[in-house]
Specification:
2 domains; DUF4270 domain-containing protein; signal; DUF4270; 11-stranded antiparallel beta sheet; disordered N terminus; mainly beta
Length: 520
Amino acid sequence: MNFKRLTSKIAALLAVSFVLVACDDEFSTVGGEIIENPTDVELQKLEVTTYSKKINSVQTNNLSDYLLGVYSDPVYGETAASIFSQLSLTTTNPGFGDNTQLDSVVLTIPFYSTEGESDEEGNIEYSLDSIFGEGSFKLSVQESRYFLADFDPDADFQSRQKYYSDQQDLIEQNLVGDVLYENDNFEPSSEAIVNYGYDEVGEADTTTTGPALRIKLPVDYFQQKIINKEGSSELSNNNNFRDYFRGLFLKAEANNDASSQILLNLGKGDVNLYYTYEAEETNDDGDAETVEKGGSYQLKFGSNAVNTFEGEFPADVLQAITAADTENGEENIFLKGGEGSMAIIELFENESEIEELKENNWLINEVNLQFYVNQDFMAGAQEPDRLYVYDLENNRIIADYSFAEQFIGDFNPEDPSESMKTFSKPLERDENENGIKYSLNLTQHVNQILNNEGENVKLGLVITQNINQTANSAVRDSGEVSRVPAMSVLAPLGTVLYGNAAEDEEKQPKLWIYYTRTTE
């Protein structure tokens, strides 16, 4: 489910009422009045209230990608991310030929990577994207009989069934058969993948693709499970198949080594079965003869899948979050992706503060919300590059996201790291690459409140893996938080920011309002 988009009516109002927002704009507006070249820009900083909220169980069967591996954060501890996914038939009632013998079974799920230059031998070199940490983890693969339903029986099958990050026990309680693959020291590699298969006429063929999770699974298991089931009802359609073969569980565990976690493109993952079979052909003399040919069959991942997370926050961090002062705010804000934590922001202390701003009759040129990183906690940890703020009460984007996307044209679909920078600036870093501060643009949001076009709602603040995507995920048993951005679920990194109760007033988050005085 996506965050609700602002209506076209509101977008039109934004286009008329707020032409440009930077302090050095050629024109600025307030209401219907146009003021040319404002030069007397002033600044007022307003206090905000901030506190953290733990997210203990979040929906993960609606994600665009999936995390696999173990990430160790110096603040938030160790988290293992595993995947349970259904498989789907690419063609129903497949025919494998006569006297079919399975040669090999290869599971492949692509990593996200960037293609670089070729080496001296002409081989393309790649660098991995979206990898967190460095090192290995224990990886195992096994069949589970836990059934992932498409629709919710408790809702009369009218809505999609939700599965959550804390349901790994249910999957493991239904594991069957032997472990199909196990590697105590699996480490993601940036090497290209060479695939040995067959072309359309059954001749041997070799192709090269980008880096991927690529492992071999037992031949005997899939010979019995798939090849020998040719012509059966189990392979006649995908509903029958998914009930017969309910899915594979890819489990990640720590191995007492430096660990890593990686984002997988599960929708492009597959299990390829390579086999030989006998076929009748006519030779050059016109006689029929039996020849051996090669074939392959593909099972696809991702029709329904769930990411599970295992790990606990350190006791002191968890205590700081659960005991947060929701009325007066906190000294620190704890942000962690995955099954992690977020922040709740209240912009204005009360209605009288809003009314006072309205009475000032200011021209609001720009509004920023700035957060400083508390490096006393971070200890050189890998820091997230972007934060995302949203309307927590209505689970939708705020006006500034829509404005940046539609009117400023700041949306870059090809490169999220270069997208929406007028809405959420990337982390400002010092010469040692340590984080200094984040800045978020709330100009349109505040203008809507002051112009009686929007409500002063609570805002949610999260880490985002991809600021271009605004879909959200359901949260279980978290009180005022019912949904979080799905891209925060796929962001394993964490940070600690100074809150409004921080001792250093200069590091407290403030609403920076740049304005120009107007005359009646």
